[in-house]
Amino acid sequence: MKTLLNLMFVMGLIMANSLMATDIDALLKKMTLEEKVGQMTQVTLQVVSDQPLTTTQPYILNPEKLEEAITKYHVGSLLNVYDLAFTPEEWQDLIIKIQDIATKQTRLGIPVIYGVDAIHGANYTKGATLFPQSIAMAATFNTELSRKEGEITALEIRACGTPWNFNPVLGMGRNPLWSRLWETYGEDVHLASEMGKAYIKGQEGDQNDISDPTKVATCMKHYLGYSFPLSGKDRTPAWIPERMLREIFVPPFAAAVEAGTHTVMINSSEINGIPSHADPFVLKTLLRDELGFEGVAVSDWRDILNLHDRDHIAASARDAVRISVMAGVDMSMVPYDYSFYNDLLALVKEGAVPESRIDEAVRRILKLKADLGMFENPYPNKSLMEKFATSESVETSLLAAQQAITLLKNEGAVLPVPKDKKVLVTGPTANMLSVMNGGWTYTWQGDQEKVYPQEKMTVLEAIQAKVGQEKVTYVPGTAFDKEVDINAAVEAMKTSELAVVCLGEMPYCETPGNINDLNLPLVQYQLVEKLAALDKPIILVMLEGRPRLITRIAGAADGILMAYLPGLEGGRAIADVLFGDVNPSGKLPVTYPRYVNDLKCYDHKYSESAGPNSYDPLFPFGFGLSYTTFEYTDLKLGKYKVKKGEEIEIEVSVKNTGKMAGRESVLLYLSDLVRSITPPVKQLKRFRSVTLAPGEAQKVSFSLKTDDLSFIGTENSRIVEAGEFKVAVADLEQNFELVE
Q1: In sequence order, what are the residues at sequence separation of 6 or more whose Cβ sits closer than 8 angstroms to the Cβ of residue 285?
Q2: CB contact burial 478-495 (16+ within 10 A = b; e otherwise)
């Protein structure tokens, strides 16, 4: 009976989709060329505004400009804020005005789809639940938390009337210089794929039914190779051989397609001399033909125009439009004017772009809107406000921040700190909310401290709340790049028992976050060194979006906490970990380098693992200590000679041998010992977390499939070769043989 019901459900979905396709084709036939081209046009909110929202002036929408955008240029989409986060009510009012014009004042009543970058919660909405940034979420090694983040964010932006989220970022964070590293899930292919899939399912649901009023359309980005610029500077060229591209950079996007993501945003830069917005191999052969993606491909900010005025591959702006549309771009984030609309209209009329290509793109856009249920109701569902930023949602964010914090050093068990100790709190990130959130927080750069909710606690305030203000002395010591009062911090240290020194980066996003040196500003090192001269315990708390070098001062520190960008609840989470109310369990999702020019990832080659070429980071990928200890024993395989197509069962025992309950992420690595393409020394293939009481042991099981043993061969296709393999968990290893 259950099988019959499942079959009926699937048949119902097929019939519904078939009817929807028929309706879309019927609507498409009614549309003029101008209406079709308008659907492919996306402009920013600034185009229809008179002034931005700031801390000193209200936002002003221009109704005449909005009406012109929708009725004259037929724009299919709007995006962004201008320039400060709205309240939910302001969002709802804006969306209602947009949809009133679209549905009541146009010939066909096609709704406008609004897109936002809600990358760590509804970060462009005041009062929303904000999560740790993705690099911190990855440090949890907890896909269920990633899914919960997706669910909560989807509901909160949907409540505002914005059903399209430009997230998740699925670029591989393998260049620590890159200013968007913190938007990624780190350097590992499997971790990024699993966290991304979970997030998409949270946003779109198990069946990807985004007509559900609590779900939204996700947008995997930035496809493809954007995250690996050779220079480390944002929006600069990547040089990635096709085999490497397929091995490392494609899999997270393939996983997202499998998870059902509805849209894709294209890489702003270029790979091997070809801008992605102009590359039919990337946008058609790989994305459509091989990965099977059927959704909407949207450009990134102004990137079609960049083909002409930045990249110099198009003779004119109009030629750039032709190249990009024919390469596979469905919608242009223009974003400041209607040049794309005018140029594409002219190109079709002169025969340079066939109308069949326009129909293909518009059909995808209309289907997206239909899938979202926008033709039935494009308006905000205000009843969702009952579930907006609930206490449960905030606690989920707090839990994520707690599980992300990674203990990198604990010399002499300086942590957790007894609550009766006198503590000096110092450093440039100690008393700011913005440094825990980074870019895409209320504003694009996230650097306007005064717009952050003052009821949230900084690290200093959370420590004061935890142990009492009388036990805490605060001296700033330094700003990010200049001295404030280091000598005063040293004097305060003399009457304190230990120091919590909060270092890191000022908020940044995209190109403004470019750096020339992974070292921290000199004054931050000097603060630690002068405090260390007093020979009292020092605990570093690192609030940063990328691993800034601390090699110079790591030896002076007794404890080091990597907090990443933990979000609005980060202050509470850090205090919880510092004083032992939470046992840290995060693990590094990136390699923390020791040297400025040694930026090797953990899955390097054997030629990079010995002698002067050895992998020698300050802290390796997957590293993270606990206040308790875990013992791994009895790594066993179900069989030691495996045929292709058979699964490999793996079991290991984990025991908490310490005195505190703790959570441990068990990481399973695989090594291919001999193959026709030089193998990496190891690759993460599975992970699973367990929480154990003192003395408690648990068996953890994994299963590997033949595909987990595959790699991209000499013909740039995925293959599996027989031979010897090794699995490793912690310091345990077992070998097995794959046979034909």
Answers
A1: none
A2: bebeebeebeebbebbee
DSSP 538: E
Same domain, 420 and 295: no
Per-residue confidence at 22, pLDDT binned at 50, 70, 90?
confident
* Residues labelled catalytic: 300
CB atoms inside a 10 Å sphere around CB 155 = 26
Q: How confident is the model at residue 13 (pLDDT cuts 50, 70, 90)?
A: very low
Q: Is residue 418 part of a domain?
A: yes
Is the per-residue pLDDT at 610 higher than 90? no
The confidence score (pLDDT) of residue 612 equals 87
d(CA 217, CA 210): 6
Look at residue 655 in the predicted model and tell me its pLDDT: 98
Domain harbouring 644, CATH code:
2.60.40.10
Neighbours of 627 (CB within 10 A): 20
d(CA 287, CA 282): 6
Say yes or no: 157 and 20 in one domain: no
Task: State how many domains the chain has.
Answer: 4
Q: What digits encode the pLDDT tens for the residues 342-377?
A: 999 999 999 999 999 999 999 999 999 999 999 999
Range of the domain at 264: 31-387
CA distance 324 to 459: 47
Q: What is the mean pLDDT of the chain?
A: 96
The reply to whether 702 and 579 lie within a common domain is no
Structure tokens at 530: 């002068």
Q: Indicate the DSSP class of residue 133.
A: P
Q: What is the pLDDT of residue 176?
A: 97
Based on the fold, state whether residues 369 and 463 are members of the same structural domain.
Answer: no
Using CA atoms, how far apart are residues 420 and 525, in angstroms rounded to an integer? 28
* Angle at which helices 339-349 and 355-371 cross, to 10°: 130
Angle between helices 143-159 and 391-404 (to 10 degrees): 140
Mean of pLDDT values over 198-215: 98
Does 161 map to a domain?
yes
Q: Do 4 and 39 belong together in one domain?
A: no
Residues 368 and 435 placed together within one structural domain of the fold: no
Other C-beta atoms within 10 Å of 5: how many? 9
* DSSP secondary structure, 179-225, as one string: TTGGGS--S-HHHHHHHHHHHHHHHH-TT--TTSTT--EEEEEEETT
**Does residue 315 share a domain with residue 281?**
yes
- In this predicted model, what pLDDT tens digit does every residue of 117-162 receive, in sequence order? 999 999 999 999 999 999 999 999 999 999 999 999 999 999 999 9
Judgement on whether residues 417 and 543 belong to the same structural domain of the protein: yes
CATH of the domain at 191: 3.20.20.300
622, part of any domain: no
Confirm whether 136 is domain-assigned: yes
Residues 520 and 522: their CA atoms lie apart, in Å, by 6
CB-neighbour burial class of residue 555 (10 A; exposed 0-12, middle 13-18, buried 19+): exposed
Query: Tens of pLDDT along 642-701?
Result: 999 999 999 999 999 999 999 999 999 999 999 999 999 999 999 999 999 999 999 999
Report angle CA 310, 184, 408 to the nearest 5 degrees.
Answer: 130
Q: How many other C-beta atoms lie within 10 A of the C-beta of residue 408?
A: 22
Tokens of 712: 């991209």
